Amino acid sequence: MKIADRHLWQRFLAIATPYWREDERWKARGLLLLLVVLLLGQTQFAVLFIRQTAEFTSALAARDTARFWEAIRYCLILLVVAVPIYAFYYFVRDTLGIQWRRWLTGRFLRGYFSHRHFYELNANAEIDNPDQRVAEDIATFTQRSLYFLLVIIGSIVQMVLFSRVLWSISHELVYFLVFYATAGTLVTILVFGKVLIGLNFNQLRREADFRYSLVRVRENAESIAFYRGEVQELQQVSRRFTAAFNNFKQLIRRQLGLNFFQHAYNLLTIVVPSAIIAPRVLSGELEVGAVVQAAGAFAAVLSAISLIVENFEGLSRFSAGIDRLSTLSKVLPASSATADTGDGTISLVEGDRLCLERVTLQTPRRERVLVRDLSLVVEPGAGLMIVGESGSGKSSLLRAIAGLWHSGSGTIVHPQPGSVLFLPQQPYMLLGTLRAQLLYPQPERIVSDDQLVQLLTQVNLPDLAERFGGFDIECDWEKVLSFGERQRLAFARALLVRPRYAILDEATSALDVPNEDWLYRQLAETGATLVSVSHRSSILKYHAHVLELTGDSSWQSYPAAHYRWAR
After folding, report:
1. What are the CA-CA distances from residue 99 to residues 27, 103, 444 (Å)?
2. Which of the residues 119, 226, 543, 563 could staple to 385 if both were Cys, CB 3.0 to 4.6 A apart?
3. pTM (two decimals)
4. CA distances for 174 relative to 171, 295, 378, 529, angstroms
């Protein structure tokens, strides 16, 4: 049974405890202490209120007017004091919850964006929907953790205070209570346990898959429309929804049995206390109000003891969320060391030039060797052009140079990250202004509008800012710019950054030859050393050497002047 699994709670503690031990610990502990104090006050008022309820019930039974109105007056005083305590309790609880979520989300985001984990997780089949885990699972985790923590503390307080009340009325009720709660907990764990947790875990995963399929349709709407692939896309989205729907049907069927048991279990608590103490009331040993007081105290103590029975559905969903966050938290630090380990990975070393030393490159899961025992030096000013058939490993080699792929062996020496700029075939357009697009990835740079206009003119986009109303207009640039315009905008970024090495992965594939030649000339004049993947011979003149990948993991190196383009 996973709820009782010590490994589950070890995973829970690994996620939960840093907040209470690190930089914000005093603030967190202070808020929690205040919550405990407010909880004590709540419970004490509940005990007093039940006592007064029993008092005016007995007064009614005895037709004692003065006693009745005195009990009512005392109840009203209790309400005036208790209501602010209850309201403030929920305010403090929600404040602590949102602070915890903010801290934990920041912790996961730092891990997600450090060492390019966001890229590596994208290719990790075991970690589905990391965005959903960060955005939604953390919120659920902090809310449910705080909820269950306060339920446990509140249950202990209830058990202590109400047990005293119950013991003063009937010892038999206490004995029956212990037996009843223990039996209910065992039935819940043994009968409903493992299946419900598994179904809840699958539901989280399948709901996330369904949402992801809809996001992909939105992001690739134009391509789908061009291909007229809406029928196939509908089938894929429907299939994922059906998987979520069928799992949920199984879930609610299993929950039906649990609901039957929980409601029967709770409703019996109304009858049992009255039945046990009825003979003493009928004999006149106890007042009628004792029945009310006993029933209230019995229900409170039973609720405290029967945590698992009453909260099993929530606990099963909670345990599934713990598994998902724990899996993500373990992967984030694990992959950070990948680039630096020497066993089965390519080592990355900073230097003053780009150099590959006996590099053997494999696919991330090591299914195939792409390049074997490659050694070359790209001296500053002496560009390198990488050619070969599709699938020969050209773009993969660039990923290794960028530090994205590590599977293999050997060493890659590369200049400092700030002196290298990669221009992919599909330029990234961030959300923001045109100015932000041009300054990416150095938003802190101060560049005048005149300089930006000149920059756009250099890449044959002189009227771009005017067309959209200036540099500070926000647009969805992925949609409003053509593929060729986005590639030219990427070159504008490179001209602004002026890197020592510019690495281009078919960065001009959407441009005609004159535009391509113009952009390469502009970039070469900045002094950048060009490392290009291309299928076009027109840019050969901007490189000193050619590296040809054959597709069978072998390679050949040629001076560019002696290279004869493939048939």
Report:
1. 10, 6, 29
2. 543
3. 0.60
4. 5, 12, 83, 83
- Is the domain of 226 the same as that of 283? yes
All residues at 6 or more sequence positions from 330 whose CB lies less than 8 Å from its CB, including other chains:
none
- Please check the confidence at residue 123 and state whether its pLDDT lies above 70: no
- State the CATH number of the domain containing residue 153: 1.20.1560.10
How large is the angle between the packed helices 138-169 and 289-305, nearest 10 degrees?
A: 140
Q: Range of 268's domain?
A: 2-333
Residues 251 and 387 in one domain: no
* Per-residue pLDDT reduced to its tens digit, 317-329: 677 677 777 777 7
Other Cβ atoms closer than 10 A to 87: 11
Task: Tell me the β-bridge partners of 377.
Answer: 355
Same domain, 403 and 453: yes
d(CA 117, CA 114): 6
Query: How many other C-beta atoms are found inside a 10 Å radius of the C-beta of residue 310?
Result: 21
Same domain? For 400 and 290 the reply is no
- Does residue 94 contact residue 71 with C-beta atoms inside 8 Å? no
d(CA 510, CA 488): 10
- The structural domain count of the chain equals 2
- Residue by residue, what is the 3-state secondary structure of 152-186? HHHHHHHHHHHHHHHHHHCHHHHHHHHHHHHHHHH
For residues 15-23, give the mean pLDDT: 85
**Whole-angstrom Cα distance, residue 306 to residue 184?**
7
Reported as a single tens digit per residue, the pLDDT across 544-555 is 899 988 888 888
User: Residue 521 maps to which CATH number?
Assistant: 3.40.50.300
